[in-house]
Design brief:
The protein has three domains: about 60 residues, OB fold (Dihydrolipoamide Acetyltransferase, E2P); about 60 residues, Orthogonal Bundle (DNA polymerase, domain 1); about 60 residues, Helicase, Ruva Protein, domain 3. The protein is about 45% helix and about 20% strand. The chain is built from ten helices and five strands; from the N terminus they run E-E-E-H-E-E-H-H-H-H-H-H-H-H-H.
């Protein structure tokens, strides 16, 4: 099974597929649509790959972040969810955003994804609970609590620490928190993290 590919993007398609040249061999890999824009032609990239074997085909699904591959595999374990729907979900939400939606029981957010109806959303909430990496919002907040105490001790800095713990870069975290924070009030860290995640 192929678990990781590092190479150069030589082709792209609107269906989410790209061709990765790895030492002269071209691998067709399907990636979440939200990641496709980051895979420019001629760019070097490393993808964390899930190999899906069917009777009539062998399909490769690639992810820029290892946690997205974990989420993809967990989604495949949900009854009625195949690779196509799992990729649709991860084209709309990152693993951390999906985990947050599941942790909050946000069925409306899941129903907003193309192809996910009320029954599927309810099934996702039920079967994904406690299975995703960093699955519940409480764990996101715990990350902030466990992070080294910031010098200023403000909520925005703690929210940035929580986001970097989840895998975002410091600059991404600071930019997201800056978009949603208000300087006129002491804000709840949990609220800041949730609002910032929605912008990332």
């Amino acid at each position: 099974m192929i678990g990781r590919l590092a190479g150069v993007v030589i082709e792209q398609a609107g269906d989410g597929s790209c061709v990765l040249d790895v030492r002269g061999v071209g691998y067709e890999v399907f990636v979440p649509l939200r990641s496709l824009g980051r895979l420019a032609i001629s760019s070097s990239v490393t993808l964390h790959v899930h190999t899906h074997v069917r009777e009539d085909a062998l399909m490769l699904y690639g992810f820029l972040q290892p946690e997205d591959r974990v989420a993809f595999r967990v989604l495949l374990g949900v009854s009625g969810v195949g690779p196509k729907l799992a990729m649709t979900v991860l084209s709309d939400l990152s693993a951390s955003e999906l985990a947050l939606a599941v942790g909050r029981g946000d069925r409306a957010r899941l129903e907003a994804i193309s192809g996910v109806g009320k029954k599927t959303a309810a099934r996702l909430l039920l079967e994904l609970k406690d299975k995703l990496p960093g699955a519940v919002a409480g764990e996101v907040i715990a990350a902030a609590a466990l992070a080294p105490a910031p010098l200023l001790g403000d909520s925005a800095t703690q929210a940035c620490a929580a986001l970097t713990h989840l895998g975002f870069t410091r600059s991404q975290a600071e930019a997201a928190v800056a978009k949603v924070s208000r300087s006129d009030a002491a804000e709840n860290v949990e609220t800041l993290v949730r609002q910032a995640l929605a912008t990332l």
